[in-house]
Amino acid sequence: MPYAFLTDVHLSRYGHYTDAPTVEQLSGPFFLSQDDLEITATLRHDHTRLGYAVQLCTLRFLNTFLTDPTDVPPVVVQTLCHQLGLKDPSVLARYLEREPTRFAHQRQIRKRLGYKEFVGAEVLNLLRWLVSSVQLEETRPIELFDRCTRRLVARGVILPGATVLARLIVKVRERSAGQLYRQLEAQLIPSHKEALEQFVRLCCLNWRHGRLRAGVA
Q1: In 3-state terms, what secondary structure has residue 116?
Q2: Torsion of CA 82, 87, 90, 92, to 10 degrees
Q3: Are 59 and 115 contacting, i.e. CB atoms less than 8 angstroms apart?
């Protein structure tokens, strides 16, 4: 898989709630301003008001939206219910009933907070940065993944899926390696090329022999 370098820990942490937010965090990204309250007050139902607030605060906290916007720690729902004056946190489950409403809220929230989608110019911007980073120094894919994440957050770009980001990193690294190989090959005289090819074949034979001795097909 192109994203095999991602550990289970990375996949579980990227764009997800791993633990309940701290008291300090609840008073930050999860605090509803007067403008937030006025906007939610225009929504007709308790579950849409709560769902909107959950998506709003999730974007502020995780820099992305969740596939299931209700998959949040109970303390988040309780904190928002208290601010919205809602008594029944279980109404949030009804927010899943109408998918168009959830997506409409995401568009409104993204536009209102000034977040950008990971498309077009933002993809090109990250690709240019990735190419420069790979050419300047040898960096492990997982480190590049973390750096890309920090860069997107700093630019106010909604994080793409983990596998989307991982595939970009792998593609850039492969193309950079291929370009380097072609540059080196162009500088070799025929006799050096032949010696290098023989060396590579010998390495492959030794590797294959070692796997057979170890009983690996």
Answers
A1: strand
A2: -60
A3: yes
